[in-house]
Amino acid sequence: MYLQTLQLQQFRNYKQQQVEFAAPKTILVGNNAQGKSNLLEAIELLATLRSHRHVRDRDLILQGEDTAQIRACVKRQTGISSLSLTLRRNGRRTVTLNSENLRRQLDFLGVLNAVQFSSLDLELVRGLPEIRRHWLDSLLIQLEPIYTHILQHYNQLLRQRNAFLKQNLEAHLRSTSAPSELAIWNAQLASAGTRVMRRRQRAIQRLAPIAKAWHASISGSTETLQVKYAPNVPLEENQPEQIQQAFLTKIQQRAIAELRQGTTLVGPHRDEVELTINNTPARQYGSQGQQRTLVLALKLAELQLIEEVIGEQPLLLLDDVLAELDISRQNQLLEAIQDRFQTLITTTHLGSFDSQWLNSSQILYVNHGEIFESHPSYSHQK
Ligand SMILES: Nc1ncnc2c1ncn2[C@@H]1O[C@H](COP(=O)(O)OP(=O)(O)O)[C@@H](O)[C@H]1O
Ligand SMILES: [Mg+2]
Q1: Which residue has the higher pLDDT, 133 or 178?
Q2: Best mutation site among 19, 38, 51 for ligand 1 pocket (most ligand atoms within 8 Å of CB)
Q3: Are residues 232 and 363 in the same domain?
Q4: By residue range, what is the domain housing residue 33?
Q5: How far apart are the CA of 208 and the centre of ligand 2, in A?
């Protein structure tokens, strides 16, 4: 697929900006805090309706304004589609496809696919489990857009059950609350949670061998990467009813702790994705360079998996990472993407790029929320 144009209106630090992508590779150059990552974030929002920066919609809107809009034209094998996403301070969103309002988000998802790789992704190895869950969920939303509803439904039940636990804490301690109401919440949570976990398990089962192969190729086969889903509720059985039963059993085991803490302790919001190299947890294993290799393998696996499932190549968004990779890993990445994947690259300086590569790329300059085709002169600066 190919992103032809992108329009940003009052999005982050962009007032009004149109960008035309004229080559399979575009390099966005600019100093820090000019709007490079913001532009990639806009594309990420179109692809997943989420931002890895975990912000409220009001933070995405140009300060002082009430709405923001992101529009794009995407060329796919089936034709050209236009997408728009409108964000409002109150959090209500509108999505359109070919100028038609869509009621369901899932009809919007899946038109544009993108894999984002930023320097923050080292956190996938070193960070908290929630970072890996968020990563896996964003991938799943692209592989199976229906997952966005499944996940939202689960999160809504989780919030409601947590509120119930808090409200009823005292009543429970005095044994005056109705246990039947909690049983209803439990059953609903187990059913929705099982759907989340089964999809997560399937995605990791497909991703793991691809990531392992990329990792072997990048590291020269000296290391073995294992990506393993570690669900909070055991999934040994594969019938949904049996998993729900295991879920309910675990809830019962944790009942006292849940009441004491007033929060839900069982379910996929506590899942983990384990990354190990040669059977050692990756966060303990080796240097930063080795951890980068791991993340690179994961990203290449995401690209390949989306391509396999969707049947078209997703966009690749490289935010500040290329310069951080050593030459051999850079080359490995560039070889893998060639001209097959439309790639947007941000950087603060062009110096670290191969000249042959620069010649075949479109170069855009980002300056204070504006984009220029040639180096902005001082007259352009505010
Ligand atoms: N809602 C907003 N309104 C106005 N400016 C914003 C908003 N959100 C972020 N910014 C500005 O965007 C800039 C950061 O942009 P970013 O794309 O992350 O920079 P970089 O070019 O380093 O990737 C900062 O100057 C920040 O103040
Ligand atoms: Mg940035």
Answers
A1: 133
A2: 38
A3: no
A4: 1-112+313-382
A5: 29
Task: Give nearest CA residue, ligand 1 atom 18.
Answer: 37
Which ligand is nearest to the Cα of residue 59, counting in written order?
A: 1
Closest-lying ligand 1 atom to the alpha carbon of residue 59: 1
For ligand 1, residues with CB inside 6 Å are 12-13, 30, 32-38, 59, 61-63, 366
User: Is residue 40 domain-shared with residue 6, that is, in the same domain?
Assistant: yes
Mean pLDDT of the chain: 92
Which residues are placed with Cβ below 5 angstroms of ligand 2, an ion?
A: 36-37
Distance from C-alpha of 123 to C-alpha of 117, rounded to nearest angstrom = 11
The ligand whose atoms approach the alpha carbon of 368 most closely is: 1
Among protein residues, the one with the nearest Cα to ligand 1's atom 19 is 33
Calculate how far, in angstroms, residue 39's C-alpha sits from the geometric centre of ligand 2.
9
What percentage of residues in the chain have a pLDDT greater than 90?
74
In this structure, are 176 and 189 located in the same domain?
yes
Relative to the alpha carbon of 364, which ligand is closest? 1
Rounded to whole angstroms, the Cα distance separating 352 from 82 reads: 35
Start-end of H helices in the chain: 36-48, 57-60, 123-126, 129-143, 147-167, 169-173, 179-219, 240-253, 255-261, 288-310, 327-337, 355-359
On whether both 289 and 370 belong to a single domain, the answer is: no
- Mean pLDDT of all residues in 236-255: 92
2 lies in some domain: yes
pLDDT digits (tens, 9 = 90+) for 263-281: 999 999 999 999 999 999 9
Residue at 196 is within a domain: yes
Cα(317)–Cα(9) distance, integer angstroms: 21
Closest C-alpha to 129, from 292, 289, 275 = 275
Q: Tell me: pLDDT of 379 over 70.
A: no
Give the number of the ligand closest to the Cα of residue 29. 1
Tell whether 212 and 106 lie within a shared domain: no
Residue 119 or residue 95, greater confidence: 95
Residues 207 and 305 in one domain: yes
Out of 309, 329, 363, pick the residue that ends a domain: 309
Confidence band, pLDDT 50/70/90 cuts, at residue 54? confident
CA distance 260 to 257: 5
Domain final residue pick, 309, 328, 347 = 309
- 146 and 102, same domain (yes or no): no
Q: How many domains would you assign to the chain?
A: 2
Q: What is the CATH number of the domain that holds 178?
A: 1.20.1050.90
Same domain (yes/no): 156, 133: yes
Contact 189, 183 (CB under 8 A): no
Q: At 67, phi and psi to the nearest 5?
A: -135, 160
pLDDT at position 357 is 78
Q: Ligand 2 mean position to 15 CA, how many Å?
A: 18
